[in-house]
Design goal:
This protein is mainly α and 212 residues long. Helices cover 67% and strands 0% of the residues. It has nine helices and no strands. The chain has helices spanning 13-21, 25-33, 58-66, 76-120, 122-130, 135-164, 176-193, 195-202, 208-211. The longest helix is centred in the middle third of the chain and has 45 residues, at 76-120. The radius of gyration is 32 Å and the shape is elongated.
Length: 212
């Protein structure tokens, strides 16, 4: 298995023990020249899994084993920390980076779309101001448009992921909490992205509704 968590080679346990017990080719040539022959042992133990009683202290047992000569010990929590730090954490950072880039691009696209739609409706917005519509009504209309764009995109993306996740090379687990958190982030992004359109709408002079 490589650093990314992908299987790199498949070998049997016997072959793995043989590779582990044999010396490197240069060292083996030195031993052969000295007449020592092929140095290997058929009885090699790489690791031992110990199952403890429920009342036992894993950290205490590991500490005791470490005191023995040429032996090391890892608790389950330490093994999980190594796995998360070497494989899971790296993948999480990569996914987080891609997610941040996608959210930034989405915010820019939504902001441009909302701004363009607002500029095309400046006369209608001026008419609303002329008849006495409060600014919060105009702002809510623009924000609702932005939220509608974001929620439609989130819904299509969620449906697409649920349809194709079983065909990915790796196992993809989509928890409801993650989907809900992404939806909340999209809502915030849409509200921020509607700022350009809101700013343009609030600067409209009601007199432009009469002047054409």
């Amino acid at each position: 298995m490589n650093s990314g968590g992908d299987p790199a080679a498949f070998i049997t346990l016997v072959d793995a023990q043989t590779l582990q017990s044999q010396l490197a080719p240069p060292a083996q040539r030195v031993q052969t020249a000295r007449g020592a022959g092929l140095l290997e042992s058929a009885d090699t133990v790489a690791a031992v899994i110990a199952r403890l009683e429920p009342a036992a202290d894993p950290q205490g047992v590991a500490t005791t084993v470490r005191q023995w000569k040429h032996l090391g010990a890892l608790t389950q929590a330490e093994q999980e920390a190594i796995l998360i730090g070497s494989v899971v954490d790296r993948a999480k950072r990569q996914i987080g980076l891609f997610l941040g880039i996608l959210l930034t691009v989405s915010a820019v696209v939504i902001a441009l779309i909302i701004y363009t739609m607002t500029m095309e409706k400046l006369k209608q917005i001026a008419t609303l101001k002329l008849i006495g519509a409060p600014d919060r009504t105009i702002v809510s209309l623009i924000v609702q448009q932005s939220l509608a764009l974001g929620m439609v995109g989130w819904s299509f993306g969620l449906i697409l992921i649920l349809l194709v996740k079983d065909y990915f090379p790796r196992c993809v687990v989509l928890e409801p909490v993650n989907a809900a958190a992404l939806g909340g982030i999209i809502i915030v992004v849409c509200i921020v992205a509607s700022g350009l359109g809101v700013r343009a709408a609030l600067k409209v002079d009601p007199a432009t509704a009469i002047g054409g």
